[in-house]
Design a protein that fits this description.
By secondary structure, this protein is mainly beta. It contains no helices and 11 strands.
Length: 125
């Protein structure tokens, strides 16, 4: 059973940066495509970005493209989300998720088998 734990969230001002981390145990991340999602109060869980298991391809939501970057270190069983130029509408709980199977519908939460508990990111002046 793969277990994921997010960390690195906090309270920042608009324009600041944060790096979120996702640590995995119970399995090798090298066998999973990994994604970040976020969910603000009263909203559905929203796709943020995805990185393939080999780390060579990544995909981002339009709302974060050019500001956020996903990276991974399979040797350390870690995935990261570097967030720059943060905006108030980036405020949400951020989750990492793992997908053992290739899917073209990677923006949908139901296509991921394992989830972390989430870490809160608040962007406010």
């Amino acid at each position: 059973q793969l277990q994921l734990i997010e960390s690195g969230g906090g309270l920042v001002q608009p324009g600041d940066s944060l790096r979120l981390s996702c640590a995995a145990s119970g399995g090798a991340l090298s066998t999973y495509d990994m994604a970040w999602f976020r969910q603000a109060p009263g909203t559905k869980r929203e796709f943020v970005g995805r990185v393939m298991r080999n780390g060579e391809s990544s995909y981002y939501a339009d709302s974060v493209k050019g500001r956020f970057t996903i990276s991974r270190d399979n040797a350390k069983n870690m995935v990261y989300l570097q967030m720059n130029s943060l905006r108030p509408d980036d405020t949400a709980v951020y989750y990492c998720a793992a997908d053992a199977y290739y899917s073209g519908s990677y923006v949908y939460p139901n296509n991921y088998q394992y989830w972390g508990q989430g870490t809160q990111v608040t962007v406010s002046s």
